[in-house]
Amino acid sequence: MIIIYGNSxxxxxxxxxxxxxxxxxxxxxxxxxxxxxxxxxxxxxxLSTDFGIVVLDPIKREIKETYVLQQNAKxxxxxxxxxxxxxxxxxxxxxxxxxxESNPVLQNFANWTSIDNHTxxxxxxxxxxxxxxxxxxxFKINNNVLTGIYKSSAPIxxxxxxxxxxxxxxxxxSIRSIKIFDQNANLIDSAGNINPRDVVEISANEIxxxxxxxxxxxxxxxxxxxxxxxxxxxxxxxxxLQIQNDELYAIAGGENGWIYxxxxxxxxxxxxxxxxxxxxxxxxxxxxxxxxxMDIAVDKRNNYLYAASFQSGLLELHPDNTSVxxxxxxxxxxxxxxxxxxxxxxxxxxxxxxxxxxxxxxDQLVVKKADGSWQKFAFxxxxxxxxxxQIVIDNAxxxxxxxxxxxxxxxxxxxxxxxxKNDDKIKFIRTGLxxxxxxxxxxNCIAKDLDGKLWIGTADGIGIINCAESIMDVSGCDAELKIxxxxxxxxxxxxxxxxxxxxxxxxxxxWIGTNNGIWLISDDAEKIIQRFHINNSPLPxxxxxxxxxxxxxxxxxxxxxxxxxxxxxxxTEGSENNDQITVFPNPVAADYSGIxxxxxxxxxxxxxxxxxxxxxxxxxxxxxGQATWNGLNYLGVRPRTGVFYVFVTNADGxxxxxxxxxxxx
Length: 665
What we know:
Methylamine Dehydrogenase, Chain H
């Protein structure tokens, strides 16, 4: 089996073995390297690409030949290739070209003959006859003459052949169906109420469809729909991530340039190894009119879930699936000059009050109090636009709200009297000494670390607020623009990087997501611990939307513009004591070569591992509540089989504990 990726990388799968072939991905050519189609012929794989035909030998796992076709100095992109009666037929944007398969120099375009000059999207063989399609027409090719068979009112997206019949997927804004043709190319049936992108015939009465709206669909009798929902995130689009009550929420989004996108994919919850989607397509009826979900918050008292919609206000979803939608209230207001109710960010404070940012409204900060009453706040500053997004609450219960589109940050101190506005203090943070000293007014994110410091990610690096609680003092609290030296270069922290997200792990280290991948830096930003990008990791893209770290497991979840990926981090939140020490795996198998984790520790504990005789094998300091060991002693040798002991203590020795595990050589 051949597996083709969007970046033109190729995996060959034989049994349970995979063999990577990155030659096309790494090819140094100008223009697109997209692979459009594969023809299996004479134990070879013929890949139709945007730059020509690549012949791959899957047995030897090598590229045999490449046919680059040019007409009038124009490179012909190959959409598909078919083999019929000893000839190749190539579908291109300039028509159909044919050549003898036995010709030894198919690299020479002079050996290819044009039989039609219409843009051809696909070409295929079925029951001894050759067919092709344009964007909206199906035709039969006989003696190099094209005869029209069917004209669609919607674009033809794909063709699949079955045992006796073949299938045409077509879709636009009004027509969405699979047309079914018999072995003589007679239209005999169609399947509707779908939005098809591809189809495969399993048997004469069963086809499976790749649906643009609903994912994988099984069509029994080629009519009856059964949604096949794998245990996976609903949508590849992941705008935001949140961890609430130890559960991960992947939020589809969103906005693009702070304009709503009509995204109806909602959000997905990951809990105990299972994904549950929430949106109008999967039957969450309360979300029929809820689009562009931006953020999630959960009230721990009653497990009410709140979802921020960038079009439709605030959704309150109850555990029994009943719901309330809040918009057009005296508090949640429409964007000025628009009829949309744009809630962009949510945050629960220590008193169970829900704070939300109301983008573009006259009063950009709204709160639904723990008792169910409401209040709203405006920021009396002259700015170009009343923008509002992420909210972070500092250790003094002050609300920091990002104002995107080059505005800065607003800070509210309500003096713990939400309804008494006479004692409120408000501050506007931006660039400039004495004004906040941000590295840029284009603020993307704020993260509060374990010391209460606020790390502010902007379009031009990071500023650190070291005294957030004092922001309302007369002297204020400007951001520190830290100078660091990485490798041989010194400069301001992430200067000239568009810092899109910052996450803090249990060791107070910082995960920095940018348009150029990810950095894991030490708690004081002095050291780069890890660096991840598409060339050295499984990241599907360098454009990072959001990073969150699970406080108990240390798992790092990363949302990119090409999907979601996770990384097994080593830092977790520290426990109050060492009573819950766990070693994983235990026992350690003889063939195990991964990391051994000691979890459930007090923060930054001293950890020592000894053999049964008391000889020290390894010593380390926990990252937050977890320590790791690579299974090798100080000489780099794997110890012998036996029982090993773990001794853990905190800094003052008040929390000491021992554990043990079995290690197999």
